[in-house]
Amino acid sequence: MLKQVDYLIIGQGLAGSLLAWELIQRNYKVHIIDQQQENASQVAAGLINPVTGMRLVKNENIETLLPCAKQQYQALSHFFKNSFYQEKTLLRIVRNDKELKKYQQRLQEPSYLDFLNTELQTPSPELIAPLGLIQQKQTGTLDTVPLLNQLKDFFQKKQCYQATTFDYQDLSLENDLSWQGIHAKKIIFCEGYQAINNPWFQYLPFQLAKGEILSFRSDIPIIPQMLNYGRWFIPSPNQQFRIGATFENNVIDTLPTEKAKNDLIATLHKIYPSIKSAQLTNHQANIRPTTLDKAPFIGQHPKHKNLYIFNGFGSKGSLKIPFYSQHFIDYLADNTPLDKRVDINRVI
Known about the structure:
Elements: E1 3-10, H1 14-25, E2 30-34, H2 40-43, E3 47-48, E4 51-52, E5 57-58, H3 62-80, E6 85-87, E7 90-93, H4 97-106, E8 133-136, E9 140-142, H5 144-157, E10 161-163, E11 171-172, E12 178-179, E13 182-189, E14 209-217, E15 226-228, E16 232-236, E17 240-244, E18 248-249, H6 258-271, E19 279-288, E20 297-300, E21 307-311, H7 317-334
Helix pairs in contact: 1-5, 1-7, 3-7
């Protein structure tokens, strides 16, 4: 039996899932293809941090992105009766005089005061931070895996979810777009790093980056705050925590490595030595769909007008995807111009 939909979405990571959710809320018919490969969304920390990097740079458009992300995750939490986003204090260890000077400079910029505490914090006895700690504000974590699982159940109940391999050769672009008995007005590729194999969008300049993270359980109480020390430390209930992440450009295998594990553990022990007795419970690796200019790839194929892409959010997907999914649908539904910073036409 043929199925007619407005949008066929390839990929059930965070990008595909939130895009499909938003389309359904606007009464569009969708069908989601989940290739059931572990994706970056399922491995990612879900960390939302408005000010990042050695130079303490505020995320571009953060005043729009952050409220939109919070509102979206609150709405999803209310709908599913499950809390997915938790605001948590993030303490950044000042590693050198250069970082300290940059922090002091940022305090003179009014736009940063909503995101940085104006006084350095004294470290607790467990931490080694002789230059002090910067308390960052409006930070938190998204529990990505539970959210994706709930959305998957929701899509299944709506009978718009299919777990199968998507073969590009099965897609017919002649006259009416169709794939294995499903007819769609448009198809949107949300494949994460697999986009490099997409015959229509592989021309886009992705700069993929492998990342590895570790999960632990401690036999002693751990600090309740998140830490940034060049890596990140994220505590969770029952004395569990995760640390990460490594960053290897243009490495596209998803195999955990001893080198990354040893590096992550050694870096943590330098600043938090009392945690050495914690037991490793998991070691994961995946590929971030990062782009060369660090901006997402959103928009319409230059030749095939019913093919679209929504991808390239890198390590900031939890922050960016809620806003850009709504922005993209406004473009699809109402012809609202795409932000030139994310429109794929910028690289054509």
